[in-house]
Amino acid sequence: MVGAQEQGLKLLVPRSGVSIYAIRVQMALAMKGLAYDYLPEDPRCKSDLLLASNPVHKTLPVLIHSGRPVCESLIIVEYLDDAFPGNGASILPADPYRRAVARFWAAYVDNKMFPSSIGILNTANQQERADKVEETLAAFGLLEAALAECSKEGEAEAPFFGGGSIGFLDIALGCYIPWFEAIGRLAGVPPFLDAARTPKLAAWAGRFSAAKPFIALLTAVDKVEEYITKVLYPKWNVAVTASN
User: Fold this and answer.
1) Is residue 10 helix, strand or coil?
2) Which terms are listed as keywords in the entry (predicted)?
3) Cα(171)–Cα(80) distance, rounded to whole angstroms?
4) What is the C-alpha to C-alpha distance for residues 140 and 135, in angstroms, rounded to an integer?
5) Residue 198 in 3-state DSSP?
6) Distance of CA 34 to the CA centre of its chain
7) Cα–Cα distance, 215 to 181 (Å, whole number)
8) Cα three-residue angle 92-88-203, rounded to 5 degrees
9) What is the CA radius of gyration of the chain?
10) Taking a C-beta distance cutoff of 8 angstroms, is the pair 106, 114 a contact?
11) Considering the chain, what is the average pLDDT of its residues?
12) 167-178 as b/e, with b when 16 or more CB fall inside 10 Å?
């Protein structure tokens, strides 16, 4: 592994240590075998470096490569794959169609699936919560079918969205695994990654979570629960109870 100084890589991340999108980038860096300087930031007190690196959205994570910033986690993952083709395994599929499909589902996870699941904790009453749970379960059902299609290698099914090895969509979805479990626990609903309802996804999540080096990168579920209840939705359960 080439050192961070030689690669000129710096990663600006939220100090909380639970950022889905920072962990996603760290997974990509690990896959490519790249060393980097880890620079935690306080999102409430943005540094001059962050403001200069991401003046449009002023959000984290930001990758800085040889002084040039790259923003947005999925874009950073693609950039790392393109900028370091000789390092580690390829993250994106080589086939243009499979690349497009992986990008589509990655955007679906970010823009539909996760907002639906975390939205369960921002509902005003039991009916709204039930509707959100149903919406979320439907999204997981679609990903179950997508896994069956994306993982095909000839007539056989491979273990990951990327086929025989972890790829772009695996990383895009895998960084959410502790969050899905934490949200389910807090909402008091059956696990979203349920072996009876979505057996392929549940088995995939087990394989992904056990894969090196992702074991060390996935946030502990208890830590995610604490962050949700103390920072994101500290009064969500009180509000639901009061409105019933």
Assistant:
1) strand
2) Cytoplasm, Transferase
3) 13
4) 9
5) coil
6) 19
7) 16
8) 60
9) 18
10) no
11) 92
12) bbbbbbbbbbbb
Query: pLDDT tens, 40-95?
Result: 999 999 999 999 999 999 999 999 999 999 999 999 999 999 999 999 999 999 99
Cα-to-chain-centroid distance, residue 90: 18
Cα–Cα distance, 128 to 217 (Å, whole number): 33
Per the CB < 8 A criterion, the answer to whether 204 and 160 are in contact is yes
Distances (CA, A) of 106 to 97, 101, 167: 14, 9, 11
For range 197-212, the mean pLDDT: 96
Q: Which amino acid is at 66?
A: S
Pairwise CA distance, residues 99 & 161, whole Å: 11
Q: Starting from the edge strand earliest in sequence, which strands make up the sheet with 37-41, in order?
A: 37-41, 9-14, 62-65, 68-71
| pTM of the full structure | 0.93
Task: State the Cα–Cα distance between residues 115 and 125, nearest whole angstrom.
Answer: 18
Report which of 239, 243, 165 is spatially closest to residue 207, judged by C-alpha positions: 165
